[in-house]
Design a protein that fits this description.
ATP binding, 5-stranded mixed beta sheet, 2 domains, alpha+beta, Heat Shock Protein 90, histidine kinase, transmembrane
């Protein structure tokens, strides 16, 4: 519009009515995203009308370019090609200012329309690619979060329910012949239940982080290295002799690494409680090196002639979850039979900056 008025001023006159028509016609472009083809048809009709009744049509081409670009961008290739062909036909063969169009005029009009169409197609592809990438990233984030929640739920529920099942079985077996042992087993079972509820509450607090309803509430810290004594003690009280050994120079670990170490030991002990068998002994060994921490949980299997424990077999999600946890920190994990029993060994790299400290 500014270009139109300026060109008319240079010629010494300003056709107010014609300029008003140009302004009104340009308002069509406001609806170009809702109805691109209709807007393109209206813009072409205005362009032709202006050329029939005034010389303003030659300055209305920018609106045609914008309308054509939007039509090609928001429609399929066939519709876009039809819009380009229609623009070339209208502007070249029906244009009253050019009663005898030359081949060069046709080539220029066609090249201009194809350039606009090409720009729109390129922009459309980029837009669709960016949208697909955003959807992929969103789906991946949701999938990762689901796996993380599944890992936490599995580790919490599987470990504590396995321990509680064994403790309940021991209490039932001893309730007549050794009431004190049965009472101790029930007390431990109660404590294991409270711990499971506490860890579940912590997980829910983390999932609800930022909720206005939780303002002012204190979130319990995540389990870590300091909680290994507790789960090793639970394993002993469930009837599985377990030892915890620490080698190297113990130090604080990044929260994520500390939680991973805890979950590896927890899951390995759960598997030992289920499958190691009577008479088995479990050794939990934590080794602090300069650039890594190593975790090893090994059992020597059941004693000869002793049956395995009557606990339902797991689904295999625990080992999968351990591998996923270790992979997130760039570590390695090996799990399999060893020396008549079963061994889980993990290596987790640590930050190289020795000055970095963690709570």
């Amino acid at each position: 519009m500014g270009f139109t008025v300026t060109s008319q001023l240079d010629q010494g006159h300003v056709p107010v009515a014609g300029c008003a028509v140009v302004v009104a016609a340009s308002l069509f472009l406001l609806a170009r995203r809702r109805a691109p083809l209709c807007v393109l048809a209206c813009v072409l009709a205005v362009n032709l009308s202006l050329n029939w009744f005034s010389s303003l049509g030659q300055h209305y081409g920018a609106a045609t370019v914008v309308a054509l670009y939007t039509a090609v961008l928001h429609h399929r290739a066939a519709v876009g090609a039809a819009a380009v062909a229609g623009c070339v036909a209208v502007l070249h063969f029906v244009h009253p200012v050019l009663p005898a169009p030359s081949s060069m005029d046709f080539v220029a009009n066609a090249a201009s329309a194809l350039f606009v169409a090409g720009a729109a197609v390129g922009a459309g592809r980029w837009q669709r690619g960016a949208e697909a990438q955003r959807r992929l990233l969103a789906e991946r984030a949701v999938s990762d979060e689901r796996r993380r929640i599944a890992r936490e739920l599995h580790d919490i529920v599987a470990h504590h329910l396995t321990t509680m099942q064994l403790l309940a079985g021991g209490a039932r077996a001893n309730i007549d012949r050794s009431p004190e042992a049965a009472r101790e087993a029930l007390v431990t079972l109660e404590g294991s239940g409270r711990t499971a509820l506490r860890e579940m509450r912590h997980l829910l607090d983390v999932l609800r982080a930022g909720d206005e309803n939780d303002e002012g509430e204190t979130t319990a810290p995540q389990p870590g290295i300091g909680d290994l004594d507790r789960i090793v003690g639970d394993s002993r009280r469930a009837g599985l002799p377990t030892t915890l050994t620490t080698d190297g120079d113990p130090r604080s670990l990044p929260p994520g690494v500390a939680l991973t170490v805890f979950r590896i030991v927890q899951e390995a002990l759960t598997n030992a409680l289920r499958h190691a068998g009577d008479g088995a002994h479990v050794d939990v060994r934590l080794t602090f090196a300069v650039h890594e921490v190593r975790v090893a949980v090994t059992d020597d299997g059941p004693r000869p002639g002793r049956p395995g424990r009557p606990v339902a077999r797991g689904s295999g999600h625990g080992l999968m979850g351990m591998r996923e946890r270790v992979a997130l920190h760039g570590g390695t994990l090996r799990a399999g039979p060893e020396g008549g029993g079963f061994a889980v060994r993990a290596r987790l790299p640590l930050p190289t900056d020795r000055q970095e400290t963690y709570a």
